[in-house]
Amino acid sequence: MGSKSRQLHIFFFPLMAHGHLIPTMDMAKLFAERGVKATIATIVTTRNVPLFSKTHGINIDIQIIKFPAIEAGLPEGCENIDLVTSLEMAHKFIKAAKMLQQLLEQPLQEYQPSCLVADMFFPWATDVAAKFGIPRLVFEGTSLFSMAAAHAIGQYEPHKKVSYDFETFVIPNFPGKIKLTRKQLPETIQLEDR
């Protein structure tokens, strides 16, 4: 009697922010296109639905998890970090994100994936993966490239040398001629300049 090998199954758990959802969706597509079973556990909101409609024709399972916004003191529907508008809301969003630990365990129990790829903002996912005896890979949306660019911008402040928000500037001492505008910079830098 031969043993059947189980299909490799990667389970993705992204942070609810476009800068994390989009690359997670891209990773899941790459795996699915190569015959690997891919499941994305996420909070699907009206802001996120267009992202998931792009999976049409690609075999990716979407496992919906209810975001505990109200339980954490957030307004109903505040299920994407893009909707956080104050420091108080940010603290409540983090509280709600911590509450996702138990909610993630349910689909992991059901699906029994081979691996969990969880966002870096869910450090507790390592314990969850260990509980189910599967490896946990960390998805870190911030790359070394973007960190190096942020350092160059912080050091040389080229954004302060342009006249208006949509005028382009080149990132100094950086390979190639990468152009940005002040509006493309993180909001924290934009607010410092005002």
Helix and strand topology:
Blueprint: E1 9-13, H1 18-33, E2 37-42, H2 49-52, E3 60-64, H3 87-111, E4 115-119, H4 125-131, E5 136-139, H5 144-156, E6 168-170, E7 179-181, H6 187-192
Parallel strand pairs: 1-2, 1-4, 2-3, 4-5
Antiparallel strand pairs: 6-7
Feature tags:
single chain, 194 residues, alpha/beta, Rossmann fold, 2 domains, five-stranded parallel β-sheet, two-stranded antiparallel ribbon, 6 helices, 7 strands, 16% strand, globular
Detailed description of the structure:
The protein is α/β, with parallel strands linked by helices. The chain folds into two domains: 9-139, Glycogen Phosphorylase B (Rossmann fold); 144-192, no CATH class. It is built from six helices and seven strands. The strands form two sheets. It has a five-stranded parallel beta sheet with strand order 3-2-1-4-5, with helices on both faces. The chain has a two-stranded antiparallel sheet with strand order 6-7. α1 (18-33) links the parallel β1 and β2. The longest helix has 25 residues, at 87-111. The protein is globular. It starts with 8 loop residues before the first strand and ends with a helix. 22% of the residues are buried.
β-strand amount:
15-25%
**Low-confidence spans: pLDDT under 50, at least 5 residues?**
none
Count of individual helical segments = 6
Number of separate structural domains: 2
**CATH class descriptor name of the largest domain:** Alpha Beta
Gyration radius, rounded: 20 Å
Briefly note the structural class of the backbone.
alpha/beta
